[in-house]
Amino acid sequence: MEQFSEQVYQVGDQEIHAMEAGRHGRQIALMIHGWSSSWYAMSPLMGLLAQRFHCIAVDLPGYGQSPPFNGRTTIPRYVDLLADLIEQLSNNPVVLVGHSMGGMISITLALKYPILVERMVLLSPTISGRLSNFINFFISPITLLERFGLGGFLVSAVEKTIVGMTDRLMRPVSFAERSGITEAAYMRLRADARRPGQGRVRAECFDAMRENNLSGRFQHMETPTLILWGAEDNTVPLRDAGVVADEWPDADLRILPKAGHWPHFETPDATHRQIAAYLGLPRASTELYEPVDDGELVQIQEVAQFLAHSDIGNDLNEAQRIRIAAQFQQYSYEPGESIVHTAESGNELYMIKMGTVEVWKDPEGIDPSMHDHAQVQHVTTFRPGQIVGELAMLDQGGRSADLIAGEDGVTVLALRRDRLLTLCEDDAVLGTRLLWNIATVVSRRVRFILWQLNRAEQRRVEGLANERDVVGIR
What we know:
Blueprint: E1 5-11, E2 14-21, E3 28-32, H1 43-49, E4 54-58, H2 75-89, E5 94-99, H3 101-112, E6 117-123, H4 133-146, H5 149-161, H6 165-174, H7 183-194, H8 199-211, E7 225-230, H9 239-247, E8 252-256, H10 263-266, H11 268-279, H12 294-307, H13 318-325, E9 329-333, E10 338-340, E11 348-361, E12 377-382, E13 387-388, H14 390-395, E14 402-416, H15 417-426, H16 428-473
Parallel strand pairs: 3-4, 3-5, 5-6, 6-7, 7-8
Antiparallel strand pairs: 1-2, 2-4, 9-14, 10-14, 11-12, 11-13, 11-14
């Protein structure tokens, strides 16, 4: 169920209408729509982000219910206004979520005011400002006509006479052939695009995007960013994604099949999973609008910091560690309490967060949980930052030893196999890096064990040689 509240902000002499979701006092996710749109363009993501953030989806001046600027509309003017709004509403950097022209505004804001932006999620962002050839050939003449009152009247008259003219033009431009957008959402988006009285701002923004070409400016970009692009986007062409790939290699660029210019409406499940993984949200599609407990948010942040000094945190940035941290579950065990038994099927690996985990093994195959048996041996002890149980988790085989909480008890972070597989599916780069780090841990252990075996064999050989020498002397 949608749980929006309506707000109107006054920034200088400009009124800004907004819709909000999520708990006040949380970090702000400022959501910025695109050309010929309104706050509604961001509505499919608000429930997802409301789990963790205070979401504010604005109507940019001239769109929705926000009055236009007094004077010409430009991208820098939008940027300065939103920077003032962030300063007014937040004591901390915000997360920017921008679609289309809103993506261009977000990038420009992060370049000009990097201190205000922690991370960004961009959907089909305008980069060069040059929209598709179809838009330029068919739609821009209508937009230019709308700049003038008579043109606006003529366009409206034609629209009424030739029912759905712009619908027939725009649907294949905006949406994939196999788009999953609902009819109700489609009609609402088209109503925003047809909203009367916005002809001038639509025309000015069409020019403003061209004037704000971002090509060649990404060398100064430091803000971590996820970019999602529909594979069938015929509004902002994929050639702009090529600019991102060439000039902004640190951006996390993903191309989504069966999506056009509106992936959050057309492929919502895939879009939700990508964003949830990137922002460290515990749920991708269920229980939306239900804020996560403050304690869980603190735990995710603590785990992310802990991962930086762990076996598997090597070469991961903060955003990646947060993504992984959200996949862990935390368990605590009393001293001597069993964590897993030998031969149990394993679907979790464990990272020691606090305390120790002891590994017990019976070389004769008797249940090592019977610690009073003379043959049960203490093999090794794992300490904070180390992982254990990774082999059984990876191959789903039986555990090869008993894992027992150490003498002071233990707190472990458990990563299930299904969560790891989902992470690899949603974020191939991060999943590969995580699996590489796990493989590196296993490799080091195998090398150490081989070194121990070689040392033991060397001592055995030396011992036999000494015995022969003794016998020879006798």
